[in-house]
Specification:
98 residues, mainly alpha, 64% helix
């Protein structure tokens, strides 16, 4: 079972501002979180941050500030990459060579 991390809206807004995310983008992210009843998995959250224009390093820093360890952050980005591959190329299949 995964861990849960909690952050206040104010603290999240400050983090996003510190990472140079625009006011408009910060408000958009918070509005999307409200639509999701303020619960989101880390992979979707990281993807949202990237779609708003944040660099991978900045997303990593936000996740670290939330208390997520580097191994978990690496897994989050691996899952994001897998999702992108699946959406860009369809279903990924396993190939066996004999």
């Amino acid at each position: 079972m995964g861990a849960t991390f909690t952050v206040s809206r104010i603290a999240l807004k400050r983090m996003l501002t510190a990472m140079k995310l625009s006011e408009k983008s910060s408000d958009e992210l918070l509005a999307n979180l409200n639509k999701m009843h303020r619960h989101i998995n880390a992979v979707a959250f990281a993807g949202m941050l990237q779609r708003l224009g944040m660099k991978t390093e900045d997303v990593t820093n936000v996740l670290r500030r939330l208390g997520i360890d580097d191994i978990t952050i690496s897994s989050i980005f691996n899952m994001l990459d897998e999702e992108r591959i699946k959406s860009a190329y369809g279903r990924v299949v396993e190939l066996y060579l004999e």
